[in-house]
Design a protein that fits this description.
α6 packs across α11 and α6 crosses α12. The chain is elongated and about 100 Å long. The protein is α+β, with helices and mostly antiparallel strands. The termini are far apart. The strands form 2 sheets. Strands 4-3-6-5 form a 4-stranded antiparallel β-sheet, sandwiched between helices. β5 and β6 form a beta hairpin. It is 59% helix and 10% strand. It has a domain of 121 residues: Chitinase A, domain 3 (Roll).
Amino acid sequence: MKKKIIGLCAVLILASGCGKVPTLENGQEAIVSFENGEMISVDDFYNKIKNSFGLQTLITMVDTYVLETEFADYKDTAKESGDAYVDAYIESYGGEEELLAQLQQIGYQTIDAYRDYWYLSMLQSHAIEEYAKMQITDEEIQDYYDNEAIGDMEIDHILITPNVDEDATDEETDAAEEEAQATVEEIIARLDEAKENGEDITTVFGELAKEYSEDEDTKDNNGSLGKINYGDLGSEYDELINAAKELEDGEYSTEVITTELGYHVILKVQSYEKESLDDLRDEITETLAEEYISNNDDVGINALQHYRREYGMEIQDDEINRQYSNYIQNMLLQIQEANDSTN
């Protein structure tokens, strides 16, 4: 039975290719034919599309090949990440048909085409990150280790968030902000009083966390964020770490700490020695690469050009090659003009 199925598949494959492709008098294959004998050749079609969206299609094909080859071990992650974005859009629009109706207005004819776009975007983002890492020198890594890297710290915190409605006026928002800051100052005053009375600050801080903190994940555990360092909990906690750096173990903050989450009081429970340079090298490189990307608006185009050159990309069609050169120059010019306008 299995042999019969395999044989049938072979027949179907052969049959699908047995039809003769119509050709024009000059030998070119036709991509469309009409009953009166007129035809549109493959060459005519190619010449037409290369002057409209041909360059973008070609760049997509080039980058897909180059980046899938260079980062073969990242392909599955890129697909999963891209699909997650598309699935989120499908859910937010209420279904695939509803999303597709919107996508067709910007040129996508299928959901799969949109998935391909996000898949390539993930590959390109990864390529840019890896390229940025290559720009970081050993001297920069050493300097960051000596002057910026710190050991982990155990930090407890109390979070107070302003009670602001979406439709609040500016005056109502300001009042809520002032009230939240006043609450933080009240907490600090109670800690000061406990310190003067010789009470155990860790115990008192835990009691105040239970009473005041609006961080539901930590308030019942003395407000403990655990052992953390830069990047462990996201950039919104960097200000807490900055403040904790200035404290001795067992000390609490005496000024209101403001983050995008709200207002905080912190207690530095314990500090640890920083790890060796070898242990932190990858983490430092990633941090410096993020800064490099933030500070260099042309990193994206430079990174993708780097990988294209690494694979010896040469555009054989003179017209497409001219378009590509103009495209690169225009992109760099736009970046430069944007930088000039902000300086």
